[in-house]
């Protein structure tokens, strides 16, 4: 009897997870084509490559993991695998080996990707990539916009490049950048807060739902927040506008003391949400990665 109840609970849980994936895809579709459906519309598809990619993902969401598989759809199983890779710190090579083993073990006709590269392509349209921006090693300027063609910093006059000769022939000199900033575009990330039906309403929590009894429970209650609202009336008039806290700290990504290398991630924290949400790691937004032995300090405004 207990075993039967356990099986029923598992079915309910699996069904709920499948529904959440479908709801997420529908939210994304609503944000892309203002309809929220997945009907084919050639005029819309021609102007929206993201919608084409989304429809491919919706098609994957309807595939069985293998013929007559009742427990997993292909997309949910793939999401589980990618989550395990993230939590376990698996390398790309180990992921390829795991996918080879699973494809060999599953029945013929399985829809599992053959390697990690195919798996990444499937969810690439979500937009979690980054832009590479060349930077001065002393954090004086970024080599973009008016500085994009410069070969040395206009402030400290340090070269943008380090020379790396790969052969004895001095004519073959390969230019290697001294510093590259990885920037994760914020626009799409913030838009997704409104695409999801679960988070869109919570962007107004700081104004509509919090307790206003004079006690300090949230950054909204601080004098600094109130001073900002008084100085920026147009911005503060719409409670949906996102307030972000920014933090950075350096660490050695290789976890080895004998490697002299540090990277400084820039983390944005949305403060519109309740305290229980905005301080959860899952709601932190990675905005940039800056390599270097030291932090930018007072030069951080260059990156901001």
Question: What's the short version?
Answer:
Helices cover 42% and strands 12% of the residues. With 304 residues, it is α+β, with helices and mostly antiparallel strands.
Which features characterize this protein?
304 residues, alpha+beta, five-stranded antiparallel β-sheet, two-stranded antiparallel sheet, 13 helices, disordered N terminus
What does this structure look like?
The chain folds into three domains: 2-126, no CATH class; 131-180, no CATH class; 184-303, no CATH class. 42% of the residues lie in helices and 12% in strands. It has helices at residues 2-33, 42-47, 49-61, 74-88, 92-105, 116-122, 186-195, 197-200, 205-208, 223-231, 233-237, 275-278, 300-303; strands at 131-134, 161-165, 173-177, 180-183, 244-248, 263-270, 285-291. A five-stranded antiparallel β-sheet has the order 1-4-7-6-5, with no helix packed on it. Strands 2-3 form a two-stranded antiparallel ribbon. Helix 1 packs antiparallel against helix 3. The longest helix is centred in the N-terminal third of the chain and has 32 residues, at 2-33.
Q: Which helices and strands occur, and which strands form pairs?
A:
Layout: H1 2-33, H2 42-47, H3 49-61, H4 74-88, H5 92-105, H6 116-122, E1 131-134, E2 161-165, E3 173-177, E4 180-183, H7 186-195, H8 197-200, H9 205-208, H10 223-231, H11 233-237, E5 244-248, E6 263-270, H12 275-278, E7 285-291, H13 300-303
Antiparallel strand pairs: 1-4, 2-3, 4-7, 5-6, 6-7
Helix pairs in contact: 1-3
Please estimate the helix content: 40-55%
Inertia-based shape:
globular
Oligomer: single chain
Unreliable segments of 5+ consecutive residues? 1-15, 33-45
Q: What is the number of helices? A: 13
Which class do the helix and strand fractions yield?
alpha+beta
Tally of structural domains: 3
Q: What composes the largest sheet?
A: 5 strands, antiparallel
User: What is the total tally of β strands?
Assistant: 7
State Rg.
24 Å
Mean pLDDT: 78
Q: For the largest beta sheet, what order do the strands appear in spatially? A: 1-4-7-6-5
As a percent range, the share of strand residues is 5-15%
SSE string, helices as H and strands as E: HHHHHHEEEEHHHHHEEHEH
Span of the ends, CA to CA: 60 Å
């Amino acid at each position: 009897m207990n075993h039967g109840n356990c099986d029923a609970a598992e079915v309910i849980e699996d069904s709920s997870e499948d529904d959440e994936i479908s709801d997420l895809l529908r939210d994304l579709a609503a944000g892309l084509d203002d309809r929220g459906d997945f009907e084919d519309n050639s005029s819309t598809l021609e102007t929206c490559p993201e919608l084409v990619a989304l429809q491919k993902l919706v098609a994957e969401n309807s595939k069985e993991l293998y013929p007559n598989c009742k427990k997993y759809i292909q997309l949910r199983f793939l999401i589980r695998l990618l989550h395990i890779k993230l939590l376990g710190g698996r390398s790309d090579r180990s992921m390829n080996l795991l996918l080879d083993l699973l494809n060999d073990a599953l029945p013929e006709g399985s829809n599992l990707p053959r390697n990690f590269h195919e798996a990444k392509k499937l969810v690439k349209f979500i937009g979690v990539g980054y832009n590479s921006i060349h930077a001065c090693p002393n954090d004086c300027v970024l080599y973009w916009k008016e500085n994009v063609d410069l070969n040395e910093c206009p402030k400290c006059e340090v070269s943008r490049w380090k020379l790396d000769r790969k052969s004895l022939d001095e004519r073959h000199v390969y230019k290697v950048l001294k510093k590259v900033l990885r920037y994760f575009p914020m626009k799409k990330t913030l838009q997704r807060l409104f695409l999801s039906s679960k988070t869109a309403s919570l962007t107004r929590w700081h104004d509509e739902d919090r307790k206003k009894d004079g006690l300090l429970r949230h950054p909204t209650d601080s004098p600094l927040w109130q001073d900002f609202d008084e100085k920026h009336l147009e911005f503060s008039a719409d409670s949906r506008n996102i307030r972000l806290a920014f933090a950075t700290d350096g660490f050695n990504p290789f976890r080895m003391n004998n490697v002299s290398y540090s990277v400084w991630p820039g983390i944005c924290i949305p403060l519109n949400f309740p305290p229980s949400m905005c301080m959860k790691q899952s709601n932190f937004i990675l905005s940039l990665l800056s390599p270097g032995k030291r932090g930018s300090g007072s030069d951080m405004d260059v990156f901001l």
